[in-house]
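Protocol step 4 of 5: obtain the predicted structure for the target chain.
Materials: sequence only (see below). No template structures provided, no constraints applied. The aim of this step is simply to have a reference model before the mutagenesis design in step 5. Sequence pasted as it appears in the construct record:
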Amino acid sequence: MTARDVNYLCWMILMPPDAIPAASTRAMAPRAGLLTSAVVTLTAILGLHLLVLPSAMGALASVTLFVLGVGFLWRQLPHHYPHPRFGLCNAVTLLRAGLGTTLLTPLLAPGWSDDVLNGWGVALVAATALSLDGVDGFLARRSGLSSQFGARFDMEVDAALALLLSLLALADGSVGPVVAVVGA
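Step 4 output (structure tokens):
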């Protein structure tokens, strides 16, 4: 028995019986964190589409893809996530995924990438998503929420970002079709 187990047992013993959350409540805590993080990220996606990447088609595609991804996470979380809370580490990864969905805008809106300011907006969003890559792992280790689920979630978001950035470079015409292999 580790010191952590002893501390947990002491905490459970000292708590009054009505203060100990039911098992069903403990199981819902990660989903509540996912839902909160999803609402914050959805707000960021919509804000980006209003201020930086204005496109109704892109906003619709971003929100749809993001909601589908959150739905998949919602379904998988109770089966594969071992911790009692979602954690800031997974919230950062979810934010990176949301930022990645906004990169669909130049691919779906014809003529959208002709404006130089739009190109800078894409560069800003991509740089932000890529710069947050190391933050989620650091937060997971620091808060004790490292897991196979979190590592896999991070890898999938990395792969999706690589694919979207490869497709953007391909659509721009500045590189050949070989760059799509990077994202595959």
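Step 4 remarks: Residues 28-183 form one domain. Residues 23-51 form the longest helix (29 residues).
Proceed to step 5.
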